[in-house]
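Input.
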Amino acid sequence: MTPKLARFIDSGVFSTPAIVVDLDRVAANFTALRSALPDAAIYYAVKANPATPVLDRLVGLGSRFDAASIEEVRACIAAGAGPEAISFGNTVKKRSAIAEAFACGINLFAFDSDEELAKLAEAAPGSKVYCRLAVSQDGADWPLSRKFGTSGDHARDLLIAARDLGLIPHGISFHVGSQQTGVGAYQSAIGQAAMVFSDLRSHGIDLRLLNLGGGFPTRYRDEIPPLGTFGDAIMASVRAHFGNDLPDLLIEPGRAIVGDAGIAVTEVVLACTRREDGDRRWVYLDLGRFGGLAETEGEAIRYTITARCVTGPETPAIIAGPSCDGVDVMYRDTPYRLPAALKSGDLVLIHDTGAYVTSYASQGFNGFLPPQEHYL
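Output.
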């Protein structure tokens, strides 16, 4: 937690649940990524946190943007991003969304199927397109496999078809899974992409773009490799596979830019014991799965959780949200400990919640409003 966040929380000038984000930390994370991978253009994954203050700050830093919907495209343009700085990176898009983005001047689109390619040819004629590969998700806490991507052979055929349809076959993309904690997945995926580049060269197509996707992690409860480790491994692999003819590199970080810039401030609604759970207390917070903590599904993302201004001996805790839905339990199996003195009305902090919380929050399940958002 940064000093700026601590001062705001101590001020008490807000109600819970709330997400508080330090924009200076956002800027520092962007700069750190640029230093770790100076040869790659940064396209911020807007879906991680699409708040206007975040987009405004990143536009000022010279970021580019990976948009997943026409609404995100509009938000980026409203924040001052030029169309040349936006990639429409979702491989599943409405034809009307493609047409509107193209009319705005956007000229870079992702796809991974024949059907999506046909829509692009119709709604964005002559645009640059890149095909997404299906790659290993090993090492990712939040995998993205099966829904997106295709094989290398199919990618080759699709990009040949793109040329024949009057589009510009521009490159290859992949995503190694969100909260990726190992470098091996990047190395393997770069090798797969290089094979497609080589294969297409024999068909007279010289691809220029290698989109390395996102996945760069934020530290939660466990240690992660530093950004420099990812940058060194990625560039070594790119040079090994492409030699001196390096493609244009692009990355799509989201979590790594905004994750540790935010903190959730929640109130204990109830803290109680249940005989069937032995020595573990149930701690119900006013923020749960439906309020934005969707990534606790399967206890995949394990946030650091602390009590605010409550000390003393700690006991094992099951941590749940406030709704009347039985799945609204964040942590039952992961060992968490909270002060035994914790009671209704006390504050609990959920750290590193700047990414994929506000954007996941429901608009009123059980009548509970989304968390307030404060950008400092």
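The first strand starts at residue 18 and ends at 21.
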